[in-house]
Design brief:
This protein is α+β, with helices and mostly antiparallel strands and about 650 residues long. The chain is built from 19 helices and 14 strands. Helices cover about 40% and strands about 15% of the residues.
């Protein structure tokens, strides 16, 4: 569904692309400068001020406090989001069918998410989260490439008729099963992503990257621009060292690749915040994606992402960067002091007359070998240039830095960390509450981004179906049980995506729980209190105290295990297993009867063994077990145990 029907859905001309792009570069200039500063700090490339001319050697060190905060927060989130499909029930009778469809779609989607990562960059979602945490927005591109994954299905003759050798749908499905999932996810650095918003909706986007001239000329997809780019010098390496800027243009219906010829960018260093292009770009390839939205998934961070050139996260991150800078300076001073005191430069005061040095002569430096005794005359002195004195101020300053940066970024007390000066459980709980609130905001936005990721993937599948392509795509799910690992092919069908299902996503790992202490608290909270009843409901105890996620699933497993124990205690399972094993042995040792052998049997005997009214209920005095419910359960369990 297209969001704005008045929007011109076509690829702009090359001249229009140049003007639009240069305007967008100017719009996002300040954002990109901020991003560049953050990346420099994370990489430890920030300059540390230090005196140049000293009698001792200056040592500088980067504390990477900002990187530590980013890494700790990133570790709280799952590598792949856990997509959950909410069943849509039209009436009460469709509940089981709707739940079955949602379960099948969930299982297939989880595998598809992994396949998108594997066929893309390997960690697109993780890099996207890192940008969302530190820069308030992460971007990834979700694109389909069925012709690249299933080339045999897209072969055509001169008239455009398909020429693939597969005659029926089963053969096509078997071919697709072996070649993977045709949708991939690619990480896009935020500074290279230049969107155009109308309100809160991105209607056009630019992505900027660099490729070698050789790779473009060897790509048959870009043959439209080969003639224009072929005029540029390739050098002795065939164009491997010649970099060409590629502009990826996307609107709500079309996607296009443009090449900026070498030497026409505004600066030699790339990417730069103020990079603009002079000459018109060269169109390499375009196609209609048909999604009704851009193919980029924008995952917002704590402050809701970038919709303009300003964002509230700038104030927070710049404050953290300033603390990081000051911590680097203090730590460098401390390291310089440690080096100067533990690898000291010595000062020796000597008596020239006692050393036999003539007046005005050069004083020879005494040679002091490690471990040897030192002979000194009366009045001479040997001491360090810098004395080794403890400085508690350094430790106090670093603790203050750590406390302030945790307050800005969200305390790691949520995951077991303890800040300096916090010695009571009450203050620890205050820190956990503050960190939990900040994490909830971030988790909510990331969860929405994960749901949008699944929506983009489903939209691609629906478009492939409309284009006459596959009505479903396949993934291979691996399961492991007591017997070992098995795999099963699951499909995502286009018909299950109309209407689009309600999608939820779980993105954060469970918070660590001290299980021994939690079990004690849970036992006390659920105690009957001499008939007064429990203080807290069981479901609340399991979710809030024990931190359990799948409460209903665990309750089903507990019920099954309790039933199994009860049947084992009563001996019903053992009795039924014995009966079934004996019955199998009896069948194995009983000869089969055929019509010829029955023809020689005595007529009276045959009449005696013929069943009478086989469909009637058993009379009173029926065998033990058939009128006992637990025996019926035991019989079912025994059949499952002895099956096969």
């Amino acid at each position: 569904m297209v969001i704005d029907t008045d929007y011109p859905f076509k690829v702009p001309s090359e001249l229009d692309i140049r003007e639009i792009y240069n305007t967008v570069v100017e719009t996002w200039k300040e954002r990109n400068r901020f991003i560049n500063d953050v990346r420099e700090m994370l990489a430890g490339k920030n300059e540390i001020e230090a005196p140049k001319n000293t009698s001792y050697k200056i040592r500088t060190v980067h504390t990477h406090l900002l990187g530590a905060i980013a890494n700790e927060k990133l570790s709280r989130y799952q590598h792949i989001p856990n997509i959950q499909i909410v069943p849509t029930v039209a009436d009460e009778g469709d509940r089981n069918e709707a739940r079955g469809i949602s379960d099948r779609l969930e299982n297939a989607t989880r595998v598809a998410m992994f396949e998108m990562e594997r066929s893309g960059e390997g960690d697109s979602w993780g890099k996207c989260l890192a940008d969302a945490i530190m820069l308030d927005m992460g971007v990834e591109k979700i694109e389909r490439a069925p012709a690249a994954f299933w080339p045999e299905l897209f072969k055509e003759d001169e008239d455009g008729n398909p020429t693939h050798p597969y005659e029926d749908e089963d053969a096509i499905d078997n071919y697709k099963k072996g070649l993977g999932f045709p949708i991939r996810a690619t990480y896009v650095p935020l500074e290279r992503f230049l969107p155009i918003f109308e309100g809160s909706t991105a209607i056009e986007t630019f992505e900027v990257e660099q490729r070698s001239l050789r790779s473009i000329l060897r790509n048959s997809l870009f043959k439209r621009g080969h003639e224009a780019l072929g005029r540029f010098s390739r050098g002795t390496d065939g164009g491997l060292g010649t970099l060409v800027t590629i502009l990826h243009y996307c609107n709500q219906t079309h996607y296009a690749y443009f090449a900026v010829p070498p030497g026409t960018t505004g600066t030699s260093k790339w990417p730069m915040p103020d990079m603009a292009i002079g000459g018109p770009p060269i169109l390499l390839h375009s196609y209609e994606h048909g999604l009704g939205r851009v193919i980029y998934n924008m995952v917002d961070g704590r402050f809701g992402g970038w919709r303009s050139s300003e964002n509230k996260i700038e104030n927070v991150i710049r404050a953290m960067m300033e603390i990081n800078q000051r911590a680097d300076e203090v730590m460098s001073q401390a390291l310089t002091n440690v080096r100067a005191t533990h690898w000291p430069t010595m000062i020796m005061t000597i008596d020239p007359q006692m050393r036999g040095t003539a007046a005005g002569g050069t004083v020879r430096k005494p040679t002091i070998k490690e471990g040897e005794d030192i002979i000194m005359f009366k009045g001479e002195e040997l001491r360090r240039t810098i004395e080794d004195n403890a400085d508690p101020m350094v430790q106090w300053i670093l603790e203050q830095f750590e406390s302030r940066i945790n307050t800005l970024g969200g305390s790691n007390a949520l995951f077991g960390g303890r800040e300096p000066g916090v010695d009571t459980g009450f203050h620890q709980n205050l820190q956990i509450t503050q960190a939990e609130h900040l994490d909830e905001k971030l988790e909510q936005h990331i969860s929405f981004g994960a749901a949008q990721r699944a929506t983009l993937m489903y939209s691609h599948i629906k478009v492939m179906d409309k284009e006459g392509g596959p009505g479903r795509v396949w993934v291979n799910r691996v399961e492991e049980d007591k017997a070992g690992k098995t795999s099963q092919y699951l499909s995502i069908r286009a018909k299950d995506l109309s209407p689009m299902p309600v999608i939820d996503a779980q993105v954060r790992k469970p918070r660590p729980v001290d299980m021994s202490a939690a079990f004690r608290v849970a036992t006390q909270a659920s105690d009957d209190r001499n008939g007064k009843g429990a203080l807290i409901p069981d479901e609340q105890i399991k979710s809030e105290i024990l931190g359990r996620q799948d409460i209903r699933g665990e309750e089903k497993l507990i019920f099954i295990e309790s039933m199994k124990r009860g049947l084992l205690i009563e001996g019903v399972i053992g009795q039924r297993v014995t009966e079934l094993v004996g019955l199998k042995l009896l069948k194995a040792n009983t000869p089969e009867l055929d019509p010829n052998s029955l023809g020689d049997a005595d007529a009276a005997l045959t009449d005696a063994i013929t069943p009478r009214n086989p469909g009637a209920e058993l009379p009173s005095g029926q065998p033990e077990g058939q009128n006992q419910p637990e025996a019926q359960d035991g019989f079912a369990v025994a059949q499952a145990i002895t099956a096969g």
